[in-house]
Design goal:
The complex is a heterodimer of chains A (about 80) and B (about 240).
Chain A (H helix, E strand, L loop, with lengths): L1 H23 L3 H21 L3 H25 L6
Helix pairs in contact in A: 1-2, 2-3
Chain B lengths: L1 H22 L11 E3 L6 E5 H13 L4 H9 L1 H21 L14 H23 L8 H18 L7 H25 L22 H25 L3
Antiparallel strand pairs in B: 1-2
Classes of the chains: A mainly alpha (about 80), B mainly alpha (about 240).
Amino acid sequence: MIEFTIISWIMALLVIGAAIYAIETKDLLSSAIAAGVASLVVSIMFLILQAPDVAITEASIGAGLTMAIFVYAIGKTGRWEK
Amino acid sequence: MRKVAAIVIASAFFAILLISFYQIPQSGYSGSEYYYSNPITGSHANESVPSHYISGTKNETGAVNAVTAIVVEYRGFDTLGEVTVLFTAATGVAFLLHKGKGGKKRAEANLILREGSKLVLPFILLAGAYIFIHGHLTPGGGFPGGAVIASGFLLMMLSYPKFFMKEKPVSITESFAGITFAVIGLLGLLFASSFLENFLPLGNAGYLLSAGIIPVIYIAIGFKVGSELSSIADKFKEVQK
């Protein structure tokens, strides 16, 4: 049980760090990738919390489709925040 | 000044989140003050709603996966609303983002990505179809399965710059799936007593052909979500500057 606690703490810190980086960085491309990393880690946390269906949805929508749509939108506009 | 206001709002939101987190009952707790009553017969059962969902879903709906039974059967009307929200979002994207003529030349992806995605695509589509066909047996359902299928098409869009979704088959699939959902609901009104009520035989719990209308509705939702999400991704890819 103690391993799960340690893994959960590490992943919670990863999510918080990725979210803060996604907000603070001026590079929009790495911001989108950091948001994708955050939702990927959140999907693993859902799996540990025994919600596999939510984990599948979060992994495919949060880390896949949303990030791709952000990357397409950044490609059409501009990479750096002004 | 704006930073201080942002910090105050964020910490208030965080406090609300923490308070509601401590309200979550322990796992295994199924007591609740909301008692289950059958909406059709009007009879009151002497148990709470969560424990009724845990004990009664298998006999009442024939589905082994209780989450699916709640999403499609007990709360089927909410799911219809959810599908409508996604449809509205896809329509808005299609309305706002006009497709260009596609004259711009994009760089080709490298060989490994191109060939690897060709190899992997059938398995991604198969996994998505498995997730939504087996929604009443295993974790997952129409929304995750459709999202997996859309991410498979997204992989093709990333590796082949010229790959695009044909608009007509996608919209026909989407409309047909949406109509299937609504018509099954109306058939429930006709053959049973209320909208979206089960009218097919329940079958043996645990088999593929069981649980009445749940697999049919989830297959329709899977096709609908898959076509909508891949058309959204396609619109974002094709739009001109």
